[in-house]
Design a protein that fits this description.
The complex is a heterodimer.
Chain A (H helix, E strand, L loop, with lengths): L20 E5 L5 E6 L5 E8 L13 H8 L9 H10 L3 E7 L2 E9 L3 H13 L5 H18 L3 H14 L12 H4 L4 H11 L5 E7 L7 H8 L23 E6 L5 E9 L8 H11 L6 H9 L3 E11 L2 E11 L3 H14 L6 H13 L1 H4 L3 H13 L6 H10 L3 H11 L6 E6 L1 H9 L6 E4 L4
Chain B lengths: L5 E4 L5 E6 L5 E8 L13 H8 L11 H7 L4 E6 L4 E8 L3 H14 L6 H20 L6 H9 L14 H5 L3 H11 L5 E7 L3 H12 L23 E7 L5 E9 L6 H14 L5 H9 L3 E9 L5 E10 L5 H18 L3 H18 L3 H15 L8 H7 L2 H12 L5 E7 L7
Parallel strand pairs in B: 2-6, 7-11
Antiparallel strand pairs in B: 1-2, 3-5, 3-6, 4-5, 8-10, 8-11, 9-10
Helix pairs in contact in B: 1-4, 3-8, 9-12, 9-15, 10-11, 11-15
The chains are: A alpha+beta, B alpha+beta.
Amino acid sequence: VIVQETPPLVAAAADWRFPAVTERRLDNGLRVLMYHCPGQYVVFASLLFDVALSAEPRSREGVAGLTGRTMPRGAAGKSADQFADAIAMLGADLEASAFADGFAVRLAVPATNLPGALDLMADAVVRPSFSAEEFAKEKRLRLQEIEQTLAYPQHVASEELNAALFGDARAARPAGGAAETVEQVERVDVVAFAATHLHPGNATMIVAGDFGPVDPFPAIVESFGSWSHPGYGIAAHAEPPVISGSRQLLLRDWADAPQSTIRLAGQGILRGDRRWPALFVANFAVGGNFSSRINTVLREEKGVTYGASSALDTGKGMGLLTVSTAVRSDATVESVADIVSILTDAAGTLTDDEVRMGIRAATESAALGYERAEAVVGRVELMLSQGLPLDHVDANLAALRAVTTESANAAYVEVFDPGSLSIVVVGDASTVREPLSTWGYADLRDITPPA
Amino acid sequence: VCYPMTATSLGNGLRVVVSPTPGLGVVAVNLWYDVGSRHEQPDRQGFAHLFEHLMFQGSRHVKSGEHFALLQGHGSSLNATTSFDRTNYFESGPTPILDLALWLEADRMAFLGDALTEENLANQVDVVAQERGQRYDNVPYGTVFEKILPLVFAADHPYGHLPIGDMQQLKAATLDEVSAFHSAYYMPNNAVLTIVGDVGETEAFEKADKYFGHVAPGHSPERRLPAPLGAVDWPARIDIEEDVPSPAVWFAARLPAKEPSSRELAAVELAVGIVGDGDTSHLNRRLVRQDQTASSAGMGVNTLVAGNSLGVASVRAVPGQDLDEVVDTVADVLARFADSGPMADELAVARARSERDWLDEMATASGRADAISEYALLHGNPHLLNQRLDLLRSITPEEVREAAREWLVPVLNAQARVVPEPPASPS
């Protein structure tokens, strides 16, 4: 028996293109994008509205999220329970939620039940009850959710990072609103939010799945064709937030925590930026995969973490490069210093091998990444809400193939400054404060938790 | 919907199942080994999972770290998981990775020992300790599941401890033990290989034989399953005080073991769906929406083969809520359901939800491969996968009611209650 001693060569993956779109528009202005995805027997749909969280009144932040939560709680004369039963009977899920750059009503349903589920989706959007009782329940649940999430160090670390980065901008505060603003939201605010922002003129229906021989468009017309709206406001977009804090080191005490939860962030770029593909490849090498420089040192060499990674974060009209990990408490300062060193040393040192690997990884994973209809809908949502053209995925893949070691190094150096990071540590101050305060990257600032 | 599949065995006993999806552009490779935390020695809890980590540290022809780097570098996703019953290893990516994935899996099945070092072992013991920290110890309520298990299964029962295990015991593990574990469980005749996606049946079988045909079979461990246990019939309870935001209660239950044709387990699953899964569930409607004493409530099933499956319910109460009242309400919800059984619409909803979940699980080559491996390894027949929906559709309301009475109501007998620590008094 001869055992092969070297890895089999891997041929280039076949050319892959994002599923083809069929675009239509209803008379009421609703734009419809349909993607036929063979073998995807669960159809996903998203009705995406062009309204950013920055449209919320400052004193009522959380109103968009509460609108989403209350929307499926009764519609078209059906009580909350009757409506939930009707959705469940079709094997469907329907939810609505707000995120930084949009508001989406999302449906998942077996393809055979799509028409009925679209009717219910339209009921929720066009004829929601927004009953006082259901609104009160959702408001209470949101307040409880806030209290629960504040007990999770991972969640707190991310919130503190946003607060440190964005100063007074909407992006500095929780997407679903903080307790003090959610408290202020009343049912009339939810009704007003829906009336102002949720109309067919600023909505796109994205649908993907295996439609079989049936064109889904007539069912969409049937469900949403009669939706009219008196005024078509033009979506207002606030100026994108700027990073207001720079070179800062913050500690939030978490008594007796066995691990420190760590977040670092610096300036990144938007997906539409010509340097995006090159920066993507650079990030892949530094922290964007299991074999990255950061994970190799912290996990595979030092064993101080289960995992450490970096990501290019877009949305909110701006880009970030963020690093996330949780490390053994007694290795906190060493780990943060290691990460900063790796980020610093990466400038100009990305190798041909690293860049080649990043390009292949990013381009050849496309068929896998968009195998599910849900992933297709999610990507279209992201493209639309970030103002990208519908051919962005294919264009980006072509641009990725053209990245060179030079362009990856150049983009990293040009965009990312490891000298101006914002760093948040959530850990046991009694043991980590002293080493962090003498580390020297920046003066240590203690975050005082809300009373 | 019916997924085509063909099964065969190689000369060394490796069972191979192939399910082609022409034109997909994606291929999934999936291996299930018949070893999980239930096979561990009592003083080496967590060993199967630690071993899973070591499978990524290289083998005779693969350097440490190369497994991930090679596959991710060609656009693939990969990982492995360890549960009570089994350990699975899987990769999926563009079709041309098939040979590489099979070669990597075969090399570590055949030749892991060559690459095992004290350094790798010590490093992965550290990593697992941090995994435990991230998933359990540094998470509110994170250790409740671990603490409630002994109330339904004795400490020496295969399901008496969690796969993540005991860190002190893992620190004591030696390299010899790791090698012995590989010899005892990692062999072609104790595993199933499933290949799903854009590859023809003949080609897939040829490649399976090309890469795995040389691996020597071992003495396949005899499958020992403990006798099925009835529902817990005496009350047991633990009380925990922790730094948590609100009181909560967990319940656990022994359920019938997983057998693909078991009508009893299917009825239990539907009953659990009606009582505890999703927006329309009885627990959610009563506790969260009607009484408003909880912020979440639900129940789920972990289907297992060694005598029993495991059911777990939990209620996250609102701050300040008395847990006695919550427990009484859960008891009332279960008693009513066990008494009257499901309404016709409720059973239809539970079936529709199961069907959606199943289609969703089957929506990727990787999901199909994992499900096929499960049926082939644990139940000896991958084709049973395609009978799942028919089984669920055939369950009657009376069977669901009976399942609730027999298996769901006793969930009240094993409780773990968590309440917030009182505020520290000023010193």
